[in-house]
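Weekly puzzle thread! Below is a chain. First person to post its structure in token form gets bragging rights.
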Amino acid sequence: MKNNLHTSIHDNLWITRKFIDGHLNTPITIEGLSRQAALSPYHFIRAFCTVFKQTPHQYLMQRRIEKAKELLRSTDLSITEICSLVGFESLGSFSTLFRKLVGLSPRSYRKSFSRSAGSKTHHAYIPLCCCILHGINDTN
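Winning reply:
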């Protein structure tokens, strides 16, 4: 019986994480997430940390910043628009967290990609694991 309960909690946590991924731009609360996972808020946070090695809030912020990075690289949307699209209500808190996690301001991050995109020697990034899998090395 306990094994089935553990599996159910684990499955609910994965479902809840997928929910976070699909709703980055909406307000998300621990109470709402814990209800979805059918756990108390405190048990939900502990279980989420055990399974994913970070709190639900840390995961949400990480995913929002990843989405912002993608939008900064691939669109001409303003930083304020991107801030709103990824679920931040304050441009200041978005910029501060972005700089803390990425090491650059959103504007500097975008500039670093627009400069390299215009360069004739720019190469697309291919993860090392894909290179090894397909026999690609840097001398080709």
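Puzzle host: Confirmed. Bonus trivia for everyone else. The chain has eight helices and no strands.
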